[in-house]
Specification:
This protein has about 170 residues and is an alpha+beta fold. The chain has one domain. The protein is about 50% helix and about 15% strand. The protein is built from five helices and three strands. Strands 1-3-2 form a three-stranded mixed beta sheet. It is globular. The termini are far apart.
Length: about 170
């Protein structure tokens, strides 16, 4: 890719973290899911200006034919869906906070919906585990003003990433 700006650095960091940034390795389902997430999150990771200028190069380079901001992963129980999603959430937060330059927003909200309270707490715990592995709870680097089971905020260099874990069972 011709441009080696902040957006491509964020994108590459996100991709690298998904591939090998966590203590738990990846399996086939996770690789497929993460590849779809790369497509969906590329414009956010690049930032508005860089995506407008260099997004088409990445699309062509990767051979992407369908761009969508929505990713759905379905798999049997105990297949790693929660862990896969938690890695995406943690890697996204890291990439945004570590490479702030070139982003035209000061707040980024990540809301994770789950089937119920128990699943929501489980997802929250996985995300916190992976954020800890990435060093995002280092008090010398990142400010964490709010932390509960349902909400977590991380701040660095004028950017706040807000995580919300919402039980959204359609039966209730």
């Amino acid at each position: 890719m011709a441009n080696d700006g902040h957006g491509i650095a964020r994108f590459r960091k996100f991709e690298q973290l998904l591939e090998s940034g966590f203590s738990w390795g990846r399996h086939h389902f996770e690789r497929m899911f993460h590849n779809k997430c790369l497509v969906a999150l590329a414009p956010t990771l690049f930032g508005e200006d860089e995506w407008a200028t260099h997004g088409s190069d990445l699309i062509h380079e990767r051979g992407w034919t369908l761009l969508s901001k929505m990713v759905i992963g379905t798999a049997p129980r105990r297949f790693g869906k929660s862990v896969s999603l938690a890695k995406v959430v943690a890697a996204l937060a890291y990439a945004l906070l570590a490479h702030r330059a070139g982003l035209n927003f000061t707040e980024y909200n990540i809301t994770v919906f789950s089937t119920g309270k128990r699943a929501s707490i489980l997802l929250s715990n996985y995300v916190k585990k992976f954020l800890t592995e990435l060093g995002l709870f280092d008090k010398d680097v990142y400010n964490c003003p709010k932390k509960t089971e349902e909400r977590l905020e991380l701040e660095k260099d004028g950017l706040t990433v807000i995580f919300m874990f919402v039980p959204a069972n359609p039966d209730t």
